[in-house]
């Protein structure tokens, strides 16, 4: 009695001689670093906008009358913290 062995999909692919391997991707670290800087700058700009909103006396979180003042205060504290992290790196 012969037992049939399980062959994984990966093993089947390795056995298929008609398949060819693609060339490895060349990673351009300069591009990746620039993209990360762009992302950090977008985050920083968004946080600076949040701080600016709360610098205005009319839109300061303490002026919220719909019960969201705690949320707005938390957003301000978070934005200030992110800006500090970015500036101190």
- Which structural class fits the helix and strand makeup? mainly alpha
The termini sit apart by 68 Å
User: Which geometry do the CA atoms define?
Assistant: elongated
- Supply Rg: 27 Å
Portion in helices: 55-70%
Alpha plus pi helix count: 3
Assembly state = single chain
Strand content: under 5%
Chain-averaged pLDDT:
86
Short description:
By secondary structure, the chain is mainly alpha-helical. 60% of the residues lie in helices and 0% in strands.
Produce the secondary structure layout.
Elements: H1 9-15, H2 29-55, H3 69-87
Please name the defining characteristics of this protein.
elongated, 89 residues
What does this structure look like?
With 89 residues, this protein is an all-alpha fold. The protein has a domain at 43-89. Helix content is 60%, strand content 0%. The protein contains 3 helices and no strands. Helix 2 crosses helix 3 (69-87).
């Amino acid at each position: 009695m012969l037992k049939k062995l399980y062959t994984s999909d990966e093993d089947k692919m390795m056995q298929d001689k008609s398949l060819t391997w693609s060339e490895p991707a060349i990673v351009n670290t300069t591009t990746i670093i620039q993209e990360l800087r762009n992302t950090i700058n977008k985050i920083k700009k968004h946080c600076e906008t949040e701080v600016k909103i709360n610098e205005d006396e009319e839109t300061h979180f303490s002026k919220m009358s719909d019960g969201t003042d705690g949320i707005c205060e938390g957003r301000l504290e978070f934005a200030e913290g992110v800006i500090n992290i970015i500036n101190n790196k």
